[in-house]
């Protein structure tokens, strides 16, 4: 029975109701979380405010950094335990679950060292004036976290917010709470004061909505679907609360005929297979220069037939999807592809060891997907790669930019001039040349344009979003 974490204490929800925790590999219920409501959010926001006004606002950046570093070490010591929790809760293969825990270590480590490097400016102004700027924390920050990378997303938003001097109220996805509740316990051990980090579980439309509307919340960061991002922004707009939104993508992998194909292939596969395709930055569209299209699809098809989904403990290429509705969503996209005459190049398999009650999807490579088809426009959030051919650079740019999203793009070419031209012309928050994802990179600012959202998380840049700039003008005669 997993409880809310408020004021450094494990507490029941006001409703006393619970929600089931389901193992995606089997469909079995193995634990419960609290079904909280607005009263629990109110208690968490009060605890956070009390902490902020009482002690946290007076801590120095160096003190906060030391606490974060201590927490980073504790997470490292408990990485296997956290990975095991995540493996069962989210169905992640062992290696992915461990990578997530280690990424959390890095986020806390990075922000532990970054907070005391954040400073304002002095500005030359009129004679007799000195003008300076300070970067001040917002105060109480709200964080709505999705289920696909709970630890990583918690690390990047909560790590940055704390380092910048804020306190946090976190609403994890109802499908993935357990690892974060354990991290909150480790934060108590690290010495974070009561109220500094609070976690309230429950449904988005109940708890997430209450957090977005709460007048005591000074900033909201949200990662999830565009639909909910809109709701969050609308709720926050009522009281002019600033919002950072990370809403997913339809990442193009753009491969020119001069690319190093041996180098590109493993990246192309991993970018859609990692976390069973449930990744906002997934490379879910494959754009290939026409002369390379058939040979590349042949090699890629071969690789896809070798891919295996199966129980997380087997550490295969993919685990199950997070929940039944996500599996049905992926099946729906594939059924529509078939109905619309979109050909499948190759499909991997679900291992025989996988329980028939688990939420598995076989990785699938589709070809000649029309640019305006749902499969080329919407996030499937499953292991489905849509391939299409292009004729030249202009054509590639047109297709790459022809979705509502703009989060991450990959370009594969040996031509140095083209590398820069493409980086400039593709509309995305991150463009990778001859790689994809750069290994995660906590140091690299991340976020989107268009419907992928706004604001930046990760890297030093995130600290600007978790602070407000104050200008002080002193007239000294
Ligand atoms: P979602 O947007 O519904 O959920 C994300 C978070 O928002 C969860 O914590 C959820 O509880 C909360 N939430 C839901 N409704 C809310 C509301 N009305 N007010 C406040 N918070 C609310 O995403 P999902 O249902 O988990 O997945 C649906 C689709 O969203 C996926 O198929 C995928 O396309 C996309 N998605 C994107 C990301 C990403 O990293 N960008 C992550 C998860 C899901």
Provide a brief overview of the structure.
By secondary structure, this protein is an alpha/beta fold. It is built from 15 helices and 22 strands. The chain folds into 2 domains: 4-247, Aldehyde Dehydrogenase, Chain A, domain 1; 252-441, Aldehyde Dehydrogenase, Chain A, domain 2 (3-Layer(aba) Sandwich).
List the helices and strands and how they pair.
Elements: E1 4-6, E2 9-11, E3 18-23, E4 28-34, H1 38-54, H2 61-77, H3 79-90, H4 94-114, E5 122-123, E6 129-137, E7 140-144, H5 150-163, E8 167-171, H6 178-190, E9 197-199, H7 204-213, E10 219-223, H8 226-237, E11 243-246, E12 252-255, H9 261-273, E13 285-289, H10 290-306, E14 308-309, H11 324-339, E15 344-347, E16 349-350, E17 364-366, H12 374-377, E18 384-390, H13 393-400, E19 408-412, H14 416-425, E20 430-433, E21 453-454, H15 461-465, E22 467-475
Parallel strand pairs: 7-8, 7-10, 8-9, 10-11, 12-13, 12-19, 13-18, 14-16, 17-18, 19-20
Antiparallel strand pairs: 1-2, 3-4, 5-6, 6-22, 11-21, 15-17
Helix pairs in contact: 1-7, 2-4, 2-6, 3-4, 3-6, 4-5, 7-8
The protein binds nicotinamide-adenine-dinucleotide (NAD).
InterPro entries: Ald_DH/histidinol_DH, Ald_DH_C, Ald_DH_CS_CYS, Ald_DH_N, Aldehyde_DH_dom
Domain Aldehyde dehydrogenase: 13-472
Pfam family, one: Aldedh
> How confident is the prediction overall: mean pLDDT?
98
Helix content: 25-40%
- CA(first)-CA(last) distance: 65 Å
Give the class-level CATH name of the largest domain: Alpha Beta
CATH architecture of the largest domain: 3-Layer(aba) Sandwich
Task: List the ligand species.
Answer: nicotinamide-adenine-dinucleotide
Main sheet makeup: 7 strands, mixed
Report the strand count: 22
- Tell me the β content: 15-25%
């Amino acid at each position: 029975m997993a409880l809310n974490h408020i004021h450094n204490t494990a507490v029941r929800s006001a409703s006393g109701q619970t929600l089931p925790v389901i193992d995606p590999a089997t469909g079995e219920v193995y634990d419960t979380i609290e079904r909280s409501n607005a009263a629990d959010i109110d208690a968490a926001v009060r605890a956070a405010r009390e902490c902020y006004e009482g002690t946290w606002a007076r801590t120095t950046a160096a003190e906060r950094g030391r606490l974060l570093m201590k927490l980073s070490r504790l997470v490292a010591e408990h990485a296997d335990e956290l990975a095991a929790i995540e493996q069962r809760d989210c169905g992640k293969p062992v290696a992915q679950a461990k990578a997530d825990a280690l990424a959390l270590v890095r986020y806390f480590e990075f922000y532990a060292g970054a907070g005391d490097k954040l400073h304002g400016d002095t500005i030359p102004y009129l004679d007799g004036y000195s003008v300076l700027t300070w970067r001040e924390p917002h105060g109480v920050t709200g964080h709505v976290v999705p289920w696909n990378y709970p630890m990583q997303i918690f690390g990047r938003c909560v790590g940055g917010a704390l380092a910048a001097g804020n306190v946090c109220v976190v609403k994890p996805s109802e499908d993935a709470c357990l690892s974060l509740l354990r991290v909150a316990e480790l934060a108590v051990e690290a010495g974070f004061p009561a109220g500094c980090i609070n976690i309230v579980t429950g449904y988005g439309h109940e708890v997430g909505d209450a957090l977005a509307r709460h007048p005591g919340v000074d900033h909201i960061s949200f990662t999830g679907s565009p639909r909910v991002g809109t709701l969050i922004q609308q709720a926050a707009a009522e009281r002019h609360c600033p919002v950072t939104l990370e809403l997913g993508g339809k990442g193009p992998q753009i491969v020119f005929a001069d690319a190093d194909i041996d180098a590109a292939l493993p990246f192309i596969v991993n970018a859609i297979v990692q976390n069973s395709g449930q990744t906002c930055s997934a490379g879910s569209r494959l754009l290939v220069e026409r002369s390379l299209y058939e040979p590349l699809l042949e090699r890629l098809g071969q690789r896809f037939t070798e891919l295996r989904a199966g129980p997380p403990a087997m550490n295969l290429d993919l685990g199950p999807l997070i929940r039944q509705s996500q599996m049905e969503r992926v099946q729906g996209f594939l059924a529509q592809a078939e109905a619309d005459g979109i050909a499948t190049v190759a499909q991997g398999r679900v291992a025989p060891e996988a329980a028939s009650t688990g939420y598995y999807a076989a990785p699938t490579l589709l070809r000649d997907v029309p640019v305006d088809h749902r499969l080329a426009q919407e996030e499937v959030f499953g292991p489905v790669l849509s391939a299409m051919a292009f004729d030249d650079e202009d054509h590639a740019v047109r297709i790459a930019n022809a979705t509502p999203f703009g989060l991450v793009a990959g370009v594969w070419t040996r031509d140095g001039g083209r590398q820069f031209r493409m980086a400039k012309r593709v509309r995305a928050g991150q463009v990778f040349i001859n790689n994809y994802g750069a290994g995660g990179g906590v140091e690299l600012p991340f976020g989107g344009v268009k419907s992928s959202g706004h604001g930046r998380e990760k890297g030093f840049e995130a600290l600007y979003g978790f602070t407000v700039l104050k200008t002080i003008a002193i007239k000294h005669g």
